[in-house]
């Protein structure tokens, strides 16, 4: 069979020199095989830290450094692109693109982003005037000819997660209603990571709420029968992804630092809701929102044992220093419900914004 000489040739090639093969098999045609060894990518990008923490209204620098093989030099056509990953990781939102002198920012990031540019190999992105919506994961992608590299960096915000439902009562919000409800209270729908961090900080809430990825969950630090069973361990209970239009739950909102002043308005008498709104306006302010109260309580240690109206028609008061008759067991924002707006029984919390 003709296969045998070929096999013998393959075996002999391990030990016999080319000249010996020529003598043994003069009828074979000469050929040469060139093997190319890949030494790995010549371009890569790295982030000095995987997570950057800032606050609303502040600035943040997302690190992205370019490493190149010594045989390469950056070309004028090298492209740097930053995108933001959606919470469900299904889409990427364009943030910033740069190639040579051409630079462009997109959407809500327009005019708020630029490259740090400390060196030609620095693709770090600076975001100014951070908003609540800027929270999330960002991808840095560098392309130079046939070489490319990517790295993902998380942007976290200092803040507070709070459970919320409107005057309509519990379990009345579909996902889009939940988004609007949080926005109306100077907040956004919280992510799972934010809720998980709040749970680690001892948040315990027995009502399920929407999260930004479309899932419905709730945090339990003290297992009990109505909340998943007393024989289960502490944790974040997960109902999974739900129909954003048809299913109705509460919502977990997230807010951060604000620019302005949150305060309890000293007034000679108790107020109805409409009187409370007017009193804040007369003081050059607006009636405060639920998110502003939570931010003042959690981030600034605001403490006041007077129940007051808020913009959504609820009555609450923030206690940072537990004491008798004022949340004796724990620091918390106390909730007195949604009373009749004509009741003249409460004070008011106001917020004066700062430009």
TrEMBL record:
Keywords of this entry: Disulfide bond, Extracellular matrix, Glycoprotein, Hyaluronic acid, Immunoglobulin domain, Repeat, Secreted, Signal
Link domain span: 160-255, 260-352
Compartments reported by the entry: Secreted, Extracellular space, Extracellular matrix
Residue span, Ig-like domain: 41-158
SS bond list: 206-227, 305-326
UniProt xrefs under SMART domains: IG, IGv, LINK
Signal peptide, first to last residue: 1-17
Database matches in CDD domains: Ig_LP_like, Link_domain_HAPLN_module_1, Link_domain_HAPLN_module_2
An annotated GO cellular component: extracellular space
GO biological process terms held by the UniProt record: cell adhesion; central nervous system development; glial cell differentiation; positive regulation of neuroblast proliferation; skeletal system development
Family matches, as PANTHER family: AGGRECAN/VERSICAN PROTEOGLYCAN, HYALURONAN AND PROTEOGLYCAN LINK PROTEIN 1
Function text: Stabilizes the aggregates of proteoglycan monomers with hyaluronic acid in the extracellular cartilage matrix.
Similarity remark: Belongs to the HAPLN family.
UniProt name for this protein: Hyaluronan and proteoglycan link protein 1
Organism: Eleginops maclovinus (Patagonian blennie)
């Amino acid at each position: 069979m003709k296969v045998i000489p070929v096999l013998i040739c393959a075996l002999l090639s391990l030990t016999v020199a080319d000249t010996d093969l020529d003598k043994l098999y003069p009828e074979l045609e000469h050929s040469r095989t060139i093997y190319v060894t890949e030494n790995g990518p010549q371009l890569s990008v790295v982030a000095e830290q995987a997570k950057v923490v800032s606050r609303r209204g502040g600035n943040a620098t997302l690190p992205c450094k370019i490493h190149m093989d010594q045989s390469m030099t950056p070309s004028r056509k090298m492209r740097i692109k930053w995108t933001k990953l959606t919470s469900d990781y299904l889409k990427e939102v364009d943030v910033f693109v740069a190639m040579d002198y051409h630079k462009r920012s997109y959407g809500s990031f327009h005019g708020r982003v630029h490259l740090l540019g400390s060196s030609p190999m620095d693709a770090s992105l600076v975001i100014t005037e951070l908003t609540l919506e800027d929270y999330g994961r960002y991808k840095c992608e560098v392309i130079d000819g046939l070489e490319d590299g990517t790295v993902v960096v998380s942007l976290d915000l200092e803040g507070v997660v709070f459970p919320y439902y409107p005057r309509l009562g519990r379990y009345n919000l579909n996902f889009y209603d939940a988004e609007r409800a949080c926005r109306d209270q100077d907040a956004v729908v919280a992510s799972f990571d934010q809720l998980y961090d709040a749970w680690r900080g001892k948040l315990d809430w027995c009502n399920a709420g929407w999260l930004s990825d479309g899932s419905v969950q709730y945090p339990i630090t003290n297992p009990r029968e109505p909340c998943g069973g007393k024989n289960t361990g502490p944790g974040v209970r997960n109902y999974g992804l739900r129909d954003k239009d048809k299913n109705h739950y509460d919502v977990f909102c997230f807010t951060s630092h604000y620019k302005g002043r949150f305060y309890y308005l000293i007034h000679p008498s108790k107020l109805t809701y409409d009187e409370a709104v007017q009193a804040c306006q007369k003081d050059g302010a607006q009636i405060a929102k639920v998110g502003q109260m939570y931010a003042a309580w959690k981030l600034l240690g605001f403490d006041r044992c007077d129940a007051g109206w808020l913009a959504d028609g609820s009555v609450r008061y923030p206690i940072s220093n537990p004491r008798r008759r004022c949340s004796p067991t724990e620091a918390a924002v106390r909730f007195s419900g949604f009373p009749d707006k004509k009741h003249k029984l409460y004070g008011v919390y106001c917020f004066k914004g700062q430009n």
